[in-house]
Amino acid sequence: MKMKMESIKPALTLDARGDMCPMPVMKTNKAIQQVEVGQILEVLATDPASKPDLEAWSKMTGHKIIAFQEEDTSPKVYKFYIQRTK
Amino acid sequence: MSEGKSRLLIVASRGTADGLYPALILATTAVSQGKEAYIYFTFGGMKLLTKQMAETIKPSVDLGLSKEELEQLLAKGGMPSLVDMLKMAKESGVKIYACSPTMNLFGLKQDDLVDVVDEVIGASAFLQMASDPKTLAIFI
Q1: What is the CATH number of the domain that holds B49?
Q2: How far apart are CA B109 and CA B115, in angstroms?
Q3: Hey, how many other C-beta atoms are within 10 angstroms of the C-beta on B44?
Q4: In angstroms, what separates the C-alpha of A77 from chain B's closest C-alpha?
Q5: Burial of residue B83 (number of CB atoms within 10 Å: 0-12, 13-18, 19+)
Q6: What band does A7 get if pLDDT is binned at 50, 70 and 90?
Q7: Among the partner residues B32, B35, B77, nearest to A26 by beta-carbon distance
Q8: What ipTM is given for this predicted complex?
Q9: Residues of chain A contacting B28 with CB distance shorter than 8 Å
Q10: Which residue of chain B comes nearest to A16, CA vs CA?
Q11: Which chain B residues have any C-beta within 8 angstroms of a chain A C-beta?
Q12: Average pLDDT score over chain B
């Protein structure tokens, strides 16, 4: 069940716009350790593979994508809210 | 190797940029996903572990880009150089293995190798690692 983005307050924002695979996942994996368990990390990416790749990373690591949004810009910006679970 | 975790074991056998980047990308991503990752560099792939050769690695003809063109495109995408990517992989926990037969072939000594190498191994050690049921072994 995804939450509404507006109601979420991220503890940290990772700007991975312009980065290509595998940088968004690697940076997310590092950044998630910088927030407390339960807190939210915001990730901004333009890599078109960032959604399937971060979803796979979330499945493998257990950290939870609680909201996702595609922004209608050029290039498209993908925005993720990820909760650290452990 | 520790018990329990699943592992990715990659054989990097090509000495070109487009042969080596995929190995490094997959290994570092595997570590991000909580797996253990190992790269076994052999034949051409050993260039990246050799001090005198690491900086000279070019893309293959097949890729259709010059070294400069590829470097520019990668830099635009926030991607490190091969040498930096290798260091990053090592720092993130990827284990780096050098191939002993290749060292014989090219007359390389331990001193000729970059300092990220964890161990020099041969075919038997590789096959033993690859035969573990929790290990996925792939050839690039």
Answers
A1: 3.40.1260.10
A2: 12
A3: 18
A4: 15
A5: middle
A6: confident
A7: B32
A8: 0.75
A9: 22, 26
A10: B78
A11: 25, 28-29, 32-35, 74, 76-79, 88, 92
A12: 94
Q: In what order do the strands lie in the sheet with A40-45?
A: A12-16, A40-45, A77-83, A64-71
- Measured in residues, chain B has a length of 140
The pLDDT-based confidence of B4 (bands split at 50, 70, 90) is: confident
Tell me if B33 and A57 make a contact (CB, 8 A cut-off).
Answer: yes
Nearest CA among B14, B36, B135, B15 for reference residue B89? B36
Taking the C-alpha atoms of residue B56 and residue B16, their distance in angstroms, rounded to an integer, is 9
Q: What's the pLDDT at B121? A: 92
Structural domains in chain A, CATH included, are 5-83 (3.30.110.40)
Question: Domain of B71?
Answer: 7-139
Q: How many domains does chain B have?
A: 1
The alpha-carbon gap from B37 to the nearest alpha carbon of chain A, in Å, equals 14
| Residue percentage of chain B with pLDDT more than 90 | 88
